[in-house]
Specification:
The chain is an alpha+beta fold and 157 residues long. It has a domain of 90 residues. 27% of the residues lie in helices and 24% in strands. It has three helices and seven strands. The protein has a four-stranded antiparallel beta sheet with strand order 4-5-6-7, with no helix packed on it. The protein has a three-stranded antiparallel beta sheet with strand order 1-2-3, covered by helices on one side. The longest helix has 26 residues.
Length: 157
């Protein structure tokens, strides 16, 4: 009597490749999720981030190249030329803008902050800001971000 069950199984090459591919995906998934879990912040780090949340505007300001506007800083001269350096728009919540005055380094301002005497930041758009004499009043000045000129490549012949 012969045994119909063979103790050795013979897999074809396509079956071996599919098995290898599935095993590789499983190992890759375990490694990926292991790294994700190990990179999660600890409870101490989360508490620290929550405590420093109020410093976020200053961090954005520094990242955009501005300096902190302080009460001890000299007030810009009224009528001096203003240049829009950067914009951080946050939809209906207002936003921030880095504005330079008379070629000085830019300072960050939130919507409602006084940029110059009798000149308040009214609105922040994606590429522009509107300034006016008072919050809720009409805009008397619009500053726009300068669009960089792209260099033109010489004709290749």
């Amino acid at each position: 009597m012969t045994n119909s069950y063979s103790t050795t199984t013979s897999l074809s090459w396509p079956q071996r490749l599919v098995t290898l591919l599935l095993a590789g995906l499983a190992v890759g998934s375990v490694v990926f999720w292991g790294l994700q879990i190990s990179a999660m912040p600890s409870a101490e780090e989360v508490r620290w981030v929550e405590q420093t949340k109020g410093d976020a505007p200053q961090a954005w300001q520094r990242a955009l190249g501005g300096t902190q506007a302080q009460a001890t800083a000299p007030a810009p001269v009224a009528g001096s030329p203003l240049t829009l350096v950067a914009v951080l728009a946050r939809g209906s919540q207002g936003g921030m803008a880095v504005i330079a005055s008379s070629g000085q380094r830019g300072e960050s301002y939130r919507v409602g902050d006084e940029v110059q005497p009798a000149l308040v930041l009214l609105e922040v758009g994606l590429r522009s800001v509107r300034l006016g004499p008072a919050v809720g009043g009409p805009a008397t000045q619009v500053l726009e971000l300068a669009v960089p000129v792209m260099p033109v490549a010489p004709d290749a012949k």
